[in-house]
Design goal:
Elements (H helix, E strand, L loop, with lengths): L2 H11 L13 H21 L34 E3 L8 H5 L21 E2 L16 E2 L5 H10 L4 E2 L7 E4 L3 H6 L9 H16 L12 E8 L25 E6 L7 E3 L11 H12 L5 E7 L9 H10 L5 E5 L11 H7 L1 E6 L9 H7 L3 E4 L22 E2 L2 H5 L4 H6 L3 H13 L19 H16 L7
Parallel strand pairs: 1-4, 1-5, 5-6, 6-7, 7-8, 9-10, 9-11, 11-12, 12-13
Antiparallel strand pairs: 2-3
Length: 476
Amino acid sequence: MKPSKFINLMISLSDTPHKPLKHYLPRTWIIVCVFFLQIFLLLLARNLHTSSVVSIHPEPPAISAVNPTIHGGDSECPYGKIYVYELPAYFNTELLENCHELNPWGSRCDTYSNDGLGRPAKQLAGVVPESLTGAWFWTDQFASEIIYHNRMLNYRCRTTDGEAATAYYIPLYAGLAVGKYLWTDNYTAADRDRHCEMMLKWVHDQPYWNKSDGWDHFVTMGRITWDFRRTKKEDWGSGCIYLPGMRNITRLLIERNSWDYFDVGVPYPTGFHPSSPSDVATWQDFVRTRARDTLFCFAGATRGLIKNDFRGLLLNQCYNASGSCRVVDCGGLKCSNGTSVILESFLGSDFCLQPRGDSFTRRSIFDCMIAGSIPVFFWNRTAYSQYEWFLPGQPESYSVFIDKKEVLNGISIKRVLEKFGKDKVRKMREKVIEYIPRIVYAKPHEGLEGMKDAFDVAIEGVLNRIKDQEQEGFKW
């Protein structure tokens, strides 16, 4: 960071309270003050239509907002309203402005263009309905901080009056901030913690923090929880979640720690971003009537250095399933954004195998379900204890569970899945299709009129739990 930027930031971090006005001012001064106050409010109202836009090349990932006061009457916001902190740009948009520095292997500017949705997925033409080609993007799995920030600035229940808010949103791009420091030995633990430490200092100096010691504050962290749970300086990741002052802040993560109340698992961003409820309905009809000629599929790569590699076992079962399994071997870059092969595999299969990824979860869960394929899990923590707000309460209504130990002991996945009759498969697929709106992120910043997407479900969930915390006798 340039010295001048750092000095300006530290100035903004200091919040010096103003002395109160005297009670008895001359009448002339009162008139003058009222006149200038009216001018200030007029200018402020006009500026609320603008946004903190970052100009980068190509296709800059912008953060844009409409005037939040035109939305969110009390009848529209039964769960309360949200105040969005205006963090210094160092914590969010400045990271996007320097998107070419986010990855040691190359620029991420294309990846986070189009407000975080990424490049349009033109390669899917002919695979998805023609009317929906504009709804598909090559969205990065770590883009949720940008997506949530854009949506929050335009949320119908956003308020600019902090005193009227039920909850307070901290637009820190913690995942983008730490991601640039993870892959080389040139950085220290202090580098990986810096953004989070400075954010906490800034937020703790705000008047609204003291209302509840942070219980009504929340943040989106666009990586898995374990990337923010470093316990030793030499270990992987940031220590953000363990920093003093972070304890009571609710965290929206693509993978949560199932034993931490303040972690909330939210769906990974996928490539489908509908612009209207009719887009959703068109896609649901498409996957509902899709001809599926394969019993199950698996898209993934082996982990050659791992003894008894579970993914390797799944690949072997697929290869030996005599045409009943479609295999997408993701060794190398075969499954990177820019290819339609994974989506085509899910669209053509009744079931999709979903082992744990490099951690307990993987984005493929949601890619699979959006395609109308029924997920097969082998660990409870892959989905059931992760995304309770977004998935059906009865796991057997939309998924199959085969304990990993049974697979290790030689059970045939093909034989297990063949036992499900056509009517049962149809009902399970219908449940998957029913829940598609809850696991996608809409393209418009204002969301989908009359339909809740993953963002709406997540934010209403946060507001609900804050309301619950206010109840006498609440325990978590």
